[in-house]
Design goal:
Layout: H1 7-32, H2 38-59, H3 71-94, H4 97-104, H5 107-117, H6 125-142, H7 154-173, H8 179-200, H9 209-233, H10 236-239, H11 245-258, H12 264-284
Helix pairs in contact: 1-9, 1-11, 2-8, 2-9, 3-7, 3-8, 4-7, 4-11, 4-12, 5-7, 6-12
């Protein structure tokens, strides 16, 4: 079989396009969050997610996708998603795209830690060493104790924390509900919570707001669709390391659109986190 005919390669291409779509999405969000409440932007995204989830469920002919077998875990999972999204989008208001994504890329490593603490999965000594190296990369970027320390760098760190918990709870939830059900409740509960919160943190809309909202929905749903398609033909363990390509897009779009140039500490920290993360994916879950 030739390499191009290998279905795994198609999955890799799709996941690369996924993170390109999310890279464009985050570039739009960085501008949008300067003029809008974070919760309004999240309400738009979760509303599109809700509509998209119904489309996917109907397409896959999944009946009763709106019924969960464990509402407690489902609600917890969706609340974690809202927390993660809130902190991550908020970080774009204060940080360069590359800084936010590099710190946020610690989340796959944190998933391993929480899998050990919550799911009681066994973690090898070499994996713990790789995790320690990843945290060193974050410390290198944040440089606590130095006069140039930026406290806003803790925002994407909180996003990574909540996203890793979201991933672990999602694995627990998958024992009770289908992917279509989880996607549906992610949209439903996410849209409901952010709609309520948006009234408490309201910022007036603008004549150009609808343009932002449309493109947020388009690239968010495009990324979700490509991600679901990629995971349907290629194992997650193979696709996981490609998550780090979003850092490349963050650096690229940050420079092209916002003239952001990451410093040497951010670049070195990113390399450390990426190499450590790929090591964990490749050698810890064989």
């Amino acid at each position: 079989m030739s390499k191009i005919s290998n279905p795994y390669n198609y999955g890799i291409i799709l996941i690369l396009l996924t993170y390109l779509s999310f890279g464009i999405l985050d570039t739009i969000q960085k501008t949008a969050v300067q003029y809008h409440s974070v919760f309004v932007l999240l309400f738009v995204k979760y509303s599109f997610c809700l509509i998209f989830s119904v489309f996917i469920a109907k397409k896959n002919k999944v009946k009763n996708f709106y019924l969960s077998n464990n509402y407690k875990i489902q609600i917890t999972r969706c609340a974690l998603s809202v927390c993660e999204s809130c902190f991550f989008v908020l970080s774009f208001r204060y940080l360069a795209l590359a800084d936010a994504h590099t710190i946020g890329s610690l989340s796959p490593v944190l998933v391993v830690v929480f899998s050990y603490l919550i799911l009681k999965e066994k973690i090898s000594l070499t994996t713990w060493l790789a995790i320690g190296v990843s945290f060193f990369g974050v410390i290198l970027i944040m440089r606590p104790g130095m006069t140039i320390f930026n406290p806003y760098l803790t925002i994407p760190l909180l996003a990574a924390f909540f996203y890793s918990l979201f991933q672990v709870v999602t694995r627990l939830n998958s024992k009770y509900d289908d992917n279509e059900t989880m996607l549906f409740y992610n949209g439903l509960i996410g849209a409901t919570l952010t709609l309520i919160l948006s009234f408490f943190f309201w910022q007036p809309l603008h004549s150009f707001s609808i343009i932002f909202f449309i493109f947020l929905g388009i690239f968010f749903c495009t990324g979700l669709f490509l991600q679901i398609k990629a995971l349907s033909i290629t194992p997650a363990s193979i696709l996981a390391p490609y998550h780090y390509t979003v850092i490349v897009w963050a650096i690229f779009f940050g420079f092209i659109v916002y003239k952001e140039v990451p410093d040497i500490f951010t670049i070195l920290g990113a390399l450390i986190i990426v190499v450590s993360g790929i090591f964990i994916f490749r050698y810890s879950f064989k």
